[in-house]
């Protein structure tokens, strides 16, 4: 199965008090297409992922998060210093299976890279390992990365 996705430019989150919520974003910039989204904290050049989700309709789902997921918004607010941003990618299909696979892999990648996600219990407890192949060859390089991050 091939899943093609396109990341869009990050959107800063703003004070949501006008909408009677904690955060809001310029929803005109978010499409109605299917995809995955991340609520993040940006501090300097560093971005920490706080939450990853999937949606058959990104605009509708993200608006629901702002309006209904108080736990997420408080967690995002309490995350630390920095600017809160929304990142999302669109996929060419609304097929649930592909969205589920994409979301799952984004979550695994975030966990491997040390992000503690509010929607995945236990990501703090994951032990991250790095495997580096000191000696390699052309055949092995076509299959495996020279450095891999894994968790257990």
Automatic annotation (TrEMBL):
Gene3D superfamilies: GIY-YIG endonuclease
Pfam families: GIY-YIG
Domain GIY-YIG: 34-108
Protein name: GIY-YIG catalytic domain-containing protein
Organism the protein comes from: Chitinophaga eiseniae
Phylogenetic classification of the source organism: Bacteria, Pseudomonadati, Bacteroidota, Chitinophagia, Chitinophagales
């Amino acid at each position: 199965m091939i899943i093609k996705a396109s990341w869009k430019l990050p959107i800063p989150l703003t004070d949501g008090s006008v909408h009677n919520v904690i955060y809001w974003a310029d929803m005109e910039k978010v499409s109605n297409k299917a995809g995955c989204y991340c609520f993040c904290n940006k501090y300097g050049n560093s971005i920490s992922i706080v939450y990853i989700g999937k949606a058959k309709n990104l605009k509708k789902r993200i608006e629901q998060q702002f309006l209904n997921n108080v736990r997420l918004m408080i967690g995002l607010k309490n995350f630390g210093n920095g600017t809160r941003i929304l990142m999302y990618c669109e996929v060419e299909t609304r097929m649930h299976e592909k969205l589920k696979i994409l979301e799952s892999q984004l979550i695994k990648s975030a966990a491997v890279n040390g992000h503690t996600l509010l929607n995945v219990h236990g990501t703090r407890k994951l032990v991250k390992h790095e495997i580096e192949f000191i000696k390699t060859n052309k055949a092995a390089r076509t299959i495996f990365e020279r450095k891999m991050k894994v968790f257990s």
